[in-house]
């Protein structure tokens, strides 16, 4: 058993449940290409792909983050302008930790929780932004959150028009799907060195509003929910051509 497999078995309930699937993931190094990260909410860029972002920037590669929503409905379904402002600032701070300047963030201002209503607009923006050969990273189109899934679908549609490499990040999948719902043949494992893991942790902690509720509600994130972000690998699904044929 490799060190990664041993660690997988020891990391707690989620990794216990997912251990055999994670062990089967193919080791992956992201291609040295301009990288576009389509983030449904502030914090998605850090939780699921913060390590990838940090590694690409350390290689001197351009990373552009497309911030789809401002996350204003995290605690109030009607939205909270103050929270939106705070989450934009948290996202900028987190991305600075990962090596991405504020000038490389594109904000779409789509209403939080309603990305599906603006899916065509998200796709159109991606088609204008993407260049052939780019690496596009976004949330899986089955990641058990409507905004995550809408971003995944918009990305599949965009790469029909612009030939780019598309990989899906995973977050709510670990909590709400079963192992047999993932095709292990397309699961990729990006191993993070100790320094990159530490950088990712610092970035995630910049999203303080998600760990401390502004009112009486439970916070969106706690150590249990954020467990996958603490793993020494980030996992991605390689999108298959049949998904956009």
CATH topology label: Rossmann fold
CATH superfamily, called what? Answer: LmbE-like
Q: In sequence order, what are the helices and strands, one letter per element?
A: HHEEHHEHEHEHEHEHE
Structural class: alpha/beta
Radius of gyration: 17 Å
N- to C-terminal separation? Answer: 39 Å
Q: What about the largest sheet?
A: 8 strands, mixed
CATH architecture verdict: 3-Layer(aba) Sandwich
Outline the structure in words.
With 245 residues, this protein is of the alpha/beta class. The protein has one domain: LmbE-like (Rossmann fold, 3-Layer(aba) Sandwich). It has 9 helices and 8 strands. It has helices spanning 3-10, 13-23, 44-47, 50-58, 81-98, 119-129, 146-161, 172-176, 194-205, and strands at 26-27, 35-39, 63-67, 105-107, 135-139, 165-169, 187-191, 233-238. Helix 7 links the parallel strand 5 (135-139) and strand 6 (165-169). Helix 4 (50-58) crosses helix 9 and helix 5 (81-98) runs antiparallel to helix 9. The longest helix is centred in the middle third of the chain and has 18 residues, at 81-98. The radius of gyration is 17 Å and the shape is globular. 43% of the residues are buried.
Please specify the SSE layout and strand pairing.
Layout lengths: L2 H8 L2 H11 L2 E2 L7 E5 L4 H4 L2 H9 L4 E5 L13 H18 L6 E3 L11 H11 L5 E5 L6 H16 L3 E5 L2 H5 L10 E5 L2 H12 L27 E6 L7
Parallel strand pairs: 1-7, 2-3, 2-5, 3-4, 5-6
Antiparallel strand pairs: 6-8, 7-8
Helix pairs in contact: 1-2, 4-9, 5-9, 6-7
